[in-house]
Amino acid sequence: MRVIVDRLAKTYRDRRGHAVSALDDVTFTAAPEEFLAILGPSGCGKSTLLGAIAGLLPASSGGIFFEGARRPGQPLTATVFQEFALFPWRTARANVELGLEELGLPVAERRARARRYIDQMGLGGFEDRYPHQLSGGMRQRVGIARALAVDPAVLLMDEPFSALDAQTRTLMMEELLTIWERARTTIVYVTHNIQEAVFMADRILVLSRRPGRVLASVPVVLPRPRTDTMLGDPAFVATADRIWTLIRSQAEAALVEGKA
Amino acid sequence: MRVSRAALARVPVEDRTRFLVRRNHRMLRVAALVGAVVLWELLCRAGWVPALFLPSPLGVLREGRDMLASGELLVHLAASLKRLVLGFVIGGVAGIAVGIVVGVFSVAEAVGTPLIAATFPIPKIALLPLLILWLGIGESSKVAVIALGVFFPLALNTYAGARQVDPVLVRAAVAFGAGRWSVIRKVIVPSTLPMVFAGLKLGAGTALLLLVAAEMIAVESGIGFLVLNAANLMATTKLMVGIVLLSALGVLSHWGLVALERLVLPWREG
């Protein structure tokens, strides 16, 4: 599935009623089976962009289109949220089944599919736990299983690992890559972490600070499967440096702006 | 530079938070209750207070046993429980339903909140004469005043709960295909439940208060009648049986609701 974002702009009103431009004239395409990372300094509207693609935030102008074949009953998108967004009153299994319920699947198929993704995410034995009984890493595993279970044409991920500690994050990144390299759905992955973006993505879209505009589209020329030994690879370092150069002045400006 | 002996002394680290620790004092809790009753009994035995003003705990217990044996106690208890349960269920269901609807639909909120704000401060006992006028002197006016008393805490709490739903969860549900009805059923209703239970506990207290008030007007049975009637006959021991019964009803209904909450909301932290 191809995602086409065409001259997207998003303006909203802040508490005082002033118009704030979050995104301005954003245009890009995510190719079928592409792992596209969207990277930008904090407050650059990258989560707004993802929300717009998911149909959770209306755009002010411009359009978002999906192009390509879909299996019957296959939803366009599923989202993995930064704050996990698990339902505290549902067990891990019931959280995974949420999207399947909304697809109208019969109970037996719901159970079977949930089982498959619970096992794939290494949640076996934890399926009857409530979210507050799980660690952060396990909670996001539930969040990922919930999104994968509906078999979306495009997987949207909004800083999925930024609430996790560094070690857990590295392990989860590797797990996600392993799964994706087998399934190959289009992924749009929002992050503010350069290493994370370079390690995982085929291509990185660098956004400017607010209002978010596309500064550059940086391809990552590292072979797959990616392994942690590549973190020292000259191509890895060069790509990361190039993005840091692009983003540094933006981040500095955002830092000062945040203090004001 | 010279170093003095004192500067070289080794100082152990002490736990400086000791005075902040709050202990449970389990035994003291039981002892306080038992002690109060024993003191009361001793006071009566010493003859310092006439039994007409303050009957002894053992006397109250004996009277209660006799009333239980004669069936008198059960008649009053059954009559009161029936009014209490009916009023609580009717008021509770209506309050939760109104709270959800007002919390979810903006039109209902615009219509409902000013009406609730205007009627909520009225002491419900003041409505009892009006309810008797409308519904007659029988059971329905008594059930109605209890239902009204339970309705408001539940409507307000449920409404507040529905408004405090985590928007991230609503977005997540929509992201996975939920429509309006699914969002209400799978996000809003479950997340109001903790507030609903807080409302039920408040409502249980109000219900007991209004029960006694309602049973002091034109009834032949019920704990409120028992208390008023005993007072008119100067049967203080009987009166105390009624009061102890009311205390027990209050404590038991609270415990019951706490147990029910644990059962219905196993997902709550802590």
Query: How many distinct helices of chain A?
Result: 7
Q: How would you classify the quaternary structure?
A: heterodimer
Largest sheet of chain B: none
Helix-strand pattern of chain A: EEEHEEHHHEHEHEEH
Gyration radius of chain B, to the nearest Å? 26 Å
Our measurement of the CA-to-CA distance between the termini of chain B, rounded to an integer number of angstroms, reads: 57 Å
| Count of beta strands of chain B | 0
Please give the count of helices of chain B.
Answer: 10
Instruction: List segments of chain B where confidence is low: pLDDT < 50 over at least 5 consecutive residues.
Output: none
Mean pLDDT rating of chain A: 92
Structure characterization notes:
The complex is a heterodimer of chains A (260) and B (270). By secondary structure, chain A is α/β, with parallel strands linked by helices. Chain A has helices spanning 46-54, 92-102, 107-120, 136-149, 166-183, 194-200, 234-259; strands at 2-13, 19-30, 35-39, 61-67, 77-80, 154-158, 186-191, 203-207, 214-219. In chain A, β8 and β9 (214-219) form a beta hairpin. Chain A is globular. The mean pLDDT of chain A is 92. Chain B is 73% helix and 0% strand. Chain B is flat, with a radius of gyration of 26 Å. Chain B has helices at residues 26-45, 57-70, 72-104, 106-119, 128-135, 139-163, 167-175, 180-214, 223-232, 236-264. With 270 residues, chain B is an all-alpha fold. Chain A binds chain B through residues 51, 54, 56, 75, 77-79, 81, 83, 85-90, 98-99, 102-103, 130-132, 146, 150, and chain B through 168-169, 171-178, 182, 186-187, 190-191, 193, 265-269.
